[in-house]
Automatic annotation (TrEMBL), chain A:
GO CC list: plasma membrane
Species annotation: Natrialba asiatica (strain ATCC 700177 / DSM 12278 / JCM 9576 / FERM P-10747 / NBRC 102637 / 172P1)
Membrane topology: Multi-pass membrane protein
One of the GO biological process terms: transmembrane transport
Principal location listed in the UniProt entry: membrane
Protein name, as recorded: ABC transporter integral membrane protein
Classification of source organism: Archaea, Methanobacteriati, Methanobacteriota, Stenosarchaea group, Halobacteria
Annotated keywords: Cell membrane, Membrane, Transmembrane, Transmembrane helix, Transport
InterPro entries membership: ABC_transporter_permease, MetI-like, MetI-like_sf
Alphabetized PROSITE patterns for the sequence: ABC_TM1
Automatic annotation (TrEMBL), chain B:
Cellular component terms (Gene Ontology): plasma membrane
CDD domains for the chain: TM_PBP2
Topology term for the membrane: Multi-pass membrane protein
Official protein name in the record: ABC transporter integral membrane protein
Record's keyword annotation contains Membrane: yes
Residue stretches spanning the membrane: 21-43, 81-108, 120-144, 156-174, 195-220, 255-275
Organism from which the protein derives: Natrialba asiatica (strain ATCC 700177 / DSM 12278 / JCM 9576 / FERM P-10747 / NBRC 102637 / 172P1)
Matching PANTHER family: ABC TRANSPORTER PERMEASE PROTEIN MG189-RELATED, ABC TRANSPORTER PERMEASE PROTEIN MG189-RELATED-RELATED
Length: 304, 290
């Protein structure tokens, strides 16, 4: 092994670097030492918990005395699949995803393409569309709670009374707040992606007399394919994990119509103290997200 | 591009009128959307300066005809908002420092030092992106409480520092900077630690600034984790304090809520205006890495 390393170093750097190659053991030690702090933290708070969650999901977990936990096998998962509250939360989440993902993806794409044109005040527009990115969900939730209040701006001009206490309007209200907040990240990614498309492609197309619609379809979209796939997956994953907005704006109400899956998980764990069951909910969500990401990746096709 | 040539074009060539209409449409769409985007901000700021009468008027007001600092004084005297602001700054600063240090170290190790298993470890770190943070909500809470870190600042700092995003961003960045400088320094007898502190860190200043700004904002805004870990109201960060403010008052008092929202968001909006370039860069680094 040491031999091989020395050989590789010699090949890569020229044969003069005796100094660098003489100490592959020290290089091992240095390498691991530099990696250690992150690996310790990630092991304790990222990789370890992932295994612990799987383990916990097989138990009726006793938070006060884990040794007293009772092994259930797959019972938690079986209960979960016949739990109407879980299904309600899952469908609410799917509804929220449907309400938010298309507007966020399409909206950020349109704004990115628009701002990329030679428009006056480009900096101003970019700043405005990007700015909600630096807000905490607490500010977003509270601000839109006021706007959707019975006497708030939205209800006053658009009607609907207090949107957040209406069975039909509460989720759309949360979706509107989310779109306003989450468009920013995608907008910046797509604006950068559009700026990376070579102007020459468009010049050539113009010479061939291509319409702007054709240029959009045959140049812009294909050239931006990878960032678009990235944006779609990130938006899906974020929307599936929505928590703060319903927690603050409606607390899952009225009558559980905005209880999303993470809100359900949170309540099960930290109000109901059913940690094993909540861990199972987390794992099911994990599987759903992997399936969704893999599916969008497969259908939209990314190069890397 | 001048209006004059545009106007002439309007008369000269009929096909160009379509262009002009399209330009008008583009401007209307962009600035119209921008106006809608700004309305919530305006509402937040305006309400924080309105008298109680205006806040509770039947017709919602957008302009604070009667300016008052009543709500700001009220918040100062009746809530821990100063304490919460200090907590938020301290938490965000510590997390940023920890993340920059450990992420730069491991990124240096993964790209520049040769040791067994580093490829496998990098592959695992990349794969961990697929793990939604929420799966770990319950087990990390159990671990944090076993370690006795509930209600401690480290109970928030350490789980945040496990985020693989920074490692990934910095590894991508390392791949783009040439190794020659470091090699020259090694030949001059610099130890690896000295190469890291004297050559690598200065070279990476801009990437670290982008990552640092991103982590600072991320931590300032963090919600779920501080909500679980900080249980005394004297430990709250701004986002948590704001939400309890709404709960404790029972009836939401729009003036108080909007004013606290201003306090929580203005520092970051100012940072954003000044350092937008770095933040754009941090976001772009994420977009190109996946």
């Amino acid at each position: 092994m040491g031999q091989a390393n020395r050989q590789r170093d010699a090949n890569a750097n020229g044969s003069t670097l005796v100094d660098l190659s003489k100490s592959s053991t020290r290089e091992w030690i240095a390498g691991s030492a530099f990696a250690l702090p992150y690996l310790l933290i990630a092991g304790t708070f990222l990789f370890g918990p992932l295994l612990l969650a799987l383990y916990m999901s097989l138990y009726d977990w006793n938070a006060l005395d884990p040794a007293q936990s009772q092994f259930l096998g797959l019972e938690n998962y079986r209960i979960l699949l016949s739990d109407p509250d879980f299904w309600n939360a899952l469908w609410n989440t799917v509804y929220f995803v449907v309400l938010t993902v298309p507007p966020i993806v399409v909206g950020s794409l349109l704004l990115a393409l628009g701002v990329n044109r030679e428009v006056r005040g480009q900096w101003l527009l970019r700043t405005v569309f990007f700015s909600p990115y630096v807000l905490t969900v607490a500010v977003v939730g509270l601000l839109w709670t006021e706007l959707f209040n019975a006497s708030g701006l939205v209800s006053y001009y658009l009607g609907g009374g207090n949107w957040l206490t209406s069975h039909d309007l509460a989720m759309p209200a949360i979706a509107v707040a989310t779109i306003w907040w989450q468009l920013a990240f995608n907008f910046i990614i797509l604006l950068a992606a559009r700026q990376n498309v070579s102007d020459r492609l468009y010049e050539a197309a113009k010479l061939d007399g291509a319409s702007s619609w054709r240029m959009m379809r045959d140049i812009t979209i294909p050239q931006m394919q990878n960032p678009l796939v990235f944006v779609v997956i990130v938006t899906f994953v974020n929307s599936f994990q929505v928590f703060g907005q319903p927690f603050i704006m409606t607390d899952g109400g009225p009558s559980f119509s905005t209880t999303t899956i993470v809100l359900y998980l949170y309540d099960t764990a930290f109000t109901g103290r059913q940690f094993g069951y909540a861990a199972a909910v987390g794992y099911v969500l994990f599987m759903i997200l992997i399936a969704v990401s893999a599916t969008s990746y497969y259908f939209l096709g990314g190069d890397d | 591009m001048s209006t004059k040539s545009r106007t002439r074009a309007l008369f000269d060539d009929v096909s160009l009128t379509g262009d002009r209409l399209r330009t008008i449409g583009l401007y209307a769409a962009l600035y119209g959307t921008a106006f809608l985007f700004m309305l919530p901000y305006w509402y937040m700021f305006a309400t924080s300066f309105m008298t109680r009468d205006l806040v509770y008027a039947e017709v919602p007001h957008l302009i604070p005809w009667d300016l008052t600092f009543y709500w700001y004084e009220y918040l100062l005297n009746n809530s821990l908002i100063v304490q919460w602001t200090a907590n938020t700054v301290i938490l965000a600063a510590i997390t940023t420092l920890v993340v920059i240090l450990i992420d730069a170290m491991i990124a240096y190790s993964l790209t520049r030092l040769d040791w067994p298993g580093r490829r496998a470890i990098f592959a695992i770190i990349v794969a961990s992106f697929m793990v939604p943070g929420i799966v770990n909500l319950v087990p990390v809470y159990i671990i944090v409480s076993e370690l006795g870190l509930v209600n401690s600042i480290w109970g928030v700092v350490l789980p945040s520092a496990a985020n693989p995003l920074g490692v990934f961003m910095l590894v991508q960045f390392f791949k783009d900077i040439p190794e020659e400088l470091e090699e020259a320094a090694r030949l001059d007898g610099f130890s690896r630690l000295r190469v890291f502190t004297h050559i690598v860190l200065p070279l990476m200043r801009s990437a670290l600034a982008a990552l640092g700004l991103f982590i600072f904002i991320w931590t300032w805004n963090a919600f779920v984790w501080p909500l679980l870990i900080f249980q005394d109201d004297s430990m709250y960060t701004l986002p948590i304090g704001l939400v309890t403010l709404q709960d404790n008052l029972g009836v939401t008092e729009p003036g108080v809520i909007m004013t606290s929202a201003v306090v929580a968001s203005v520092p970051l909006l100012l940072v954003f205006l000044v350092m937008q370039k770095h933040l754009v860069r941090a976001v772009e680094m994420q977009g190109t890495t996946k």
